[in-house]
Amino acid sequence: MAVVKAHHLQATGLALWGLVLLRASSDGRLDLLLREMFHPLVGLAGLILMGWAAALALPGRSHAMGVPATPGQWRLGAATAAIALLLIGLPPNPSFADLAQQRASDDSGEAELAFVMPPAQRSLTDWVRLLRTQSDPRLYVGDPVRISGFVLPRRDGPPVLARLMVRCCLADATPVGLSVRWPTNQPLPRADQWLQIDGDMAVQQGPQGEELVVMPQRITPIRRPARPLEP
Amino acid sequence: MSTAWALFQGLLIEALPFLLIGVLISSLARWLAPGGRWLRRLPGHPVLGPLSGAALGFALPACECGNVPVARRLLVAGAPLGTALGFLFAAPVLNPIVIASTWAAFPDQPWLLLARPLGAVLVSLALCLLLRMIPEAELLQADVLAERRLNQPLSAVTLLQRRSGMVGIRAAMATDPDPDHDHKATPDPAPRPPLQEVLQHGGREFLQLAVLLVAGCMLAALVQTLLPRQWLLNLGGSPTGSVVALMVLSLVISVCSSVDAFLALSFAAQVTPGALLAFLLLGPVIDLKLAGLLSLLLRPRGLLLAMAGAALAVLLIAQWINLWLL
To answer: Domain A97-230 adopts which CATH fold?
Structure first.
């Protein structure tokens, strides 16, 4: 039986990690997991790992290259292979509503709107940021709205339409949301469902005074967008 | 469980490139300076050593995952223990990217820009002084210790403490009774290892660290899923309670030090200034994701002492900040 050399086992392990990162870069899962600025880094790391694996697999003159793999290296290789195959075979499918319900909403004043945008072109996140800088809701009454997001149930009221904001990866995601006056003649939408809402803005009395609420004219169920996370 | 699996993947895939950067730097150092002679000239003084190690952080703009392989390289190359540990604990904060991100996240709180690096140095200094109380043989993992002893002069370590006798050491240094003696006149006989050997060594290091990183990310993802973050924030109503809650949060969230300031921004309004600083100081030193990686360097006793010491030092600093600012 042919003896497996340690460097061949290592090359396989590095190639598997490279494959994990390249697969993540190509199958769209990075859009679900990481902020966009980190995507090139992941792809580059995958390429470096593949190159590293290829360099190790090449026949070399070094004494260390001819050593057979030890039981410890076999265990490490088996663990690497198992994890890599699980990562490649089981893509992430998080429930944004579950994630958001565990976290406080993002109340930071970061990333103010630096330009004037027509109301109908503002995303849900743009609206939330605008309200932070110009907090008088009466300024926006009657403005047209066209936003999309997922349904986030609340303990103290009807669900809101929400988005997740990330600074780094899904682990630090925090929700932001807008209240919606859901039609009374229809059941409330289910948690985590993605919707696009066309309508206009109005003001309602909330627990902390007047708050802006979306008055829907049309509610359309949509698929989760390819890039559901907001920076 | 699908959310925990996604969180795990997010943490792992974000951390792997930084781990690779650290291993690449460590391998490059091994190839370019195989003897690591300059490392042994770094100060071994109990205070100057950790300070010089902390200052090395400016040369490595990576987060804590990338720092572990570099700290390992410092240790095995024979750098003074205090210098290597000072780098390990302070460099995740004392680097240009982290300082810039802290400034970008909190431009209206200049005290934080000063308090964060200063606090990181103090925590690192406290940990180095604390860990010096444990003998190296009981502090460092066996393989790190074995390789380190091969690169230490015989004046610092006996021949019996080495597994392989004189391997990796030059005779002049082995017989030199004065470790501070200037060896500049004699050439460093440690030959540059073949590139493939360096690649193999680095590859092994990456694979070991990656598996430990997987364990840390899995734990962090599970705890994050089971422990609602808002519950922790609500727990911290009092000044001390808010510090403790944010310390626990930093352990659980396990995000990189280069972006944690932006995350802290999202709950800055709900917590005391001391709690905010505690979050920014403790996470880069120790968190669930990092615990696995650190176990490659430190034995359980050293790891537990480092965790307890870091928590205590951060708690004291944060309480002092609360007394000052509230």
So the answer is: OB fold (Dihydrolipoamide Acetyltransferase, E2P) (2.40.50)
